[in-house]
């Protein structure tokens, strides 16, 4: 009995230490972290993003999702950018094969290295680029906390384990976000990022042709929308691209919620937002309310997501090249 009490106390102490460590790490972030060491950092990032979006606006969605995918695996420490000679890094995992825009991150890093060698982390670049592509696509702006340092490990298995698939139901979604310290509101708000970009047919084709293994369609998907999607995604077509927010996929707005409310969300995970009272209420609010709160909410949730598992202080490193450990 005494031994079990001792073990329990030790467990509580370790849990408290872990909590304190996480809090201390996240508190190492602040707005304007590079104010003295690289005062033009954010302006340099913005310049590269603006130039890129002027010629390749379709990269907005992938660059926004790159920050998501980084934060959900090992935290926001740039591990999604690392290369592997054996193709066993996060970027080699199936959920990350659709990410594009690594060359944009490299271009930003190169410009920053010329201005301030060895100062700005790749993980901070991901956070700043995510904000800046949203702004260019007519979305909200928010103050990005910086001060992250870069991790040295990138593992394909961890990406497969931690990234939530587009086939997730509401229970899986809530659990996945809760494990990262994010709320149900964060879940429904950040899902709104699907207003930007496209998806390969393979991510949702089962909803069109073989939902339960009997050659059927997903009853939660609007039949008229199914007909339109079938015209773009023939059976067996894994490579064609479809707009996630048709007619608005290059504009950051709340129309995503209107589509979800009409049962036209592209993924099972989009439709799942109607299976929970809190997420459903938020979808309805954004779809029907003039003066939507989505823009403000999105900035708040992005800041919160950007604090997941960060490395600060003397932890990690500042990579010279984002794809390579120093």
TrEMBL record:
One biological process term in Gene Ontology: response to oxidative stress
Molecular function via GO: heme binding; lactoperoxidase activity; metal ion binding
Active-site residues from the entry: 69 (proton acceptor)
Localization (cell): Secreted
Disulfide bonds: 38-116, 71-76, 122-322, 201-233
N-terminal signal peptide: 1-26
Domain of life of the native organism: Eukaryota
Purpose of the protein: Removal of H(2)O(2), oxidation of toxic reductants, biosynthesis and degradation of lignin, suberization, auxin catabolism, response to environmental stresses such as wounding, pathogen attack and oxidative stress. These functions might be dependent on each isozyme/isoform in each plant tissue.
Family in the record: Belongs to the peroxidase family. Ascorbate peroxidase subfamily.
Entry protein name: Peroxidase
Taxonomic lineage from the root: Eukaryota, Viridiplantae, Streptophyta, Embryophyta, Tracheophyta
């Amino acid at each position: 009995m005494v031994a079990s009490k001792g073990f329990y106390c030790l467990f509580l102490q370790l849990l408290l230490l872990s909590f304190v460590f996480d809090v201390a790490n996240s508190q190492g972030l602040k707005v304007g972290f590079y104010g003295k060491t690289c005062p033009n950092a954010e302006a340099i990032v913005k310049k590269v993003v603006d130039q890129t979006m002027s010629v390749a606006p379709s990269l907005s969605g992938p660059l926004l999702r790159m920050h998501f995918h980084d934060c959900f695996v090992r935290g926001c420490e740039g591990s999604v950018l690392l290369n592997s000679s054996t193709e066993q890094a996060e970027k080699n995992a199936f959920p990350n094969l659709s990410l594009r825009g690594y060359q944009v991150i490299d271009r930003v890093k190169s410009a920053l290295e010329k201005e301030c060698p060895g100062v700005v982390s790749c993980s901070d670049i991901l956070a700043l680029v995510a904000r800046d592509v949203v702004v260019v696509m007519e979305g909200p702006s928010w103050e990005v906390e910086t001060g992250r340092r870069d991790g040295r490990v990138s593992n394909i298995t961890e990406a497969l384990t931690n990234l939530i698939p587009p086939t997730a139901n509401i229970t899986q979604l809530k659990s996945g976000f809760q494990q990262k310290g994010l709320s149900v509101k964060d879940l429904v708000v950040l899902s709104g990022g699907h207003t930007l970009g496209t998806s390969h047919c393979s991510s949702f084709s089962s909803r069109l042709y073989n939902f339960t293994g009997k050659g059927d369609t997903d009853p939660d998907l609007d039949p008229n929308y199914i007909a339109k999607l079938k015209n773009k995604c023939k059976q067996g077509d894994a490579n064609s691209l479809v707009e996630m927010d048709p007619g608005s996929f290059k504009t950051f707005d709340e129309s995503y919620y209107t589509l979800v409310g009409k049962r036209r969300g592209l993924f099972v995970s989009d439709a799942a937002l109607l299976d929970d009272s809190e997420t459903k209420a938020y979808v309805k609010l954004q779809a029907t309310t003039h003066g939507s709160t989505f823009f403000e909410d999105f900035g708040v949730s992005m800041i919160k997501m950007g604090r997941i598992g960060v490395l600060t202080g003397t932890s990690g490193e500042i990579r010279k090249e984002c794809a390579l450990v120093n």
